[in-house]
Structures are given as structure tokens and as C-alpha cells.
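re: that chain from earlier
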Amino acid sequence: MSEGYTIDGADDEIAGIVVRLQGERGFRFHSAVGSYDALDGHVFVSPSAAQRAARELGKDGPQRGYMLARRRAA
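^ sequence. v structure.
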């Protein structure tokens, strides 16, 4: 069984969803719109951590978000 949550980006737009499948420790982000693709596939420790990242990405623009996502993936 999986557990999932909707994630809002900047200005309360839908950024995507996070899903934790049974046995996984984190929540994997799946973007709903292209402006949040930089976060697509990243694993967050909680839905609120994904929410913060999506809002930061939406606020700072795609280039900053891309660099932020790359730092988290490393």
C-alpha cells in the first residue's frame, strides 16, 4: 500500500505529489507541471520537506530550483 500527498508550489498552484511506497523510507516527488520538473524523482524525508522545496523553487524560479535540486541529489 502507498501513501501520497498533494504538494503546493508558489501561489498555491499544484506542483505535484509525493508518494511513499510500502517499505520506502522517504517520499518520492512527481511533478505535475514543467516548472517543478527539477524536483521530479527526488526523495524527501517528509511531505513538508517537499512542500518547502516546491515553494522555494516556485519563488526563486526554475534556474535556482535546478541548482537546488542538483545539490540535494548529490
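Residues 3-73 form one domain.
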